[in-house]
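Lab notebook, bench 4. Still working through the backlog of constructs that have no structural model yet. Next entry is a single chain of 127 residues. Request: give me the structure tokens for it.
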Amino acid sequence: MNRDQIEGGLRNIRGRGRSAIGAVTGRVRPQAEGAFDQAAGAVQYAYGRARDTADDLQRDGAHLVNEARHRGRAIAGDLQERGRTYQGEAVRRGRVVAARAEENKGTTLLLVALAAFSAGWLMRRGR
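Model written out:
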């Protein structure tokens, strides 16, 4: 509860009292002033509630932004770790293939020549 809510509530109660006194005494001016204070107090109280709500929303929004930032960093860290794992696996498998190619030079040369011939044959112009 903020100052506007408290002051608005008190002004509303004070206005009700003035209206009641004006009604009992039969005087129009205190009744009208009381009604005005009542309405002004209600508006001030409503403004205080709106301000409280806005403060709560701002606080909640800041919390959500911080939470999203934290989760984004966690996800980025996980993705970096996955990337390192995949990179390590690719390097390992590449070395295995290179070692096999080194062991079987004749077969590797034949496969490369066959792949080059096939690619050239597929890309030739149709006659």
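Notes after review: The CA atoms of residues 10 and 41 lie 7 Å apart. The chain has one domain: 3-123. Flag for follow-up if needed.
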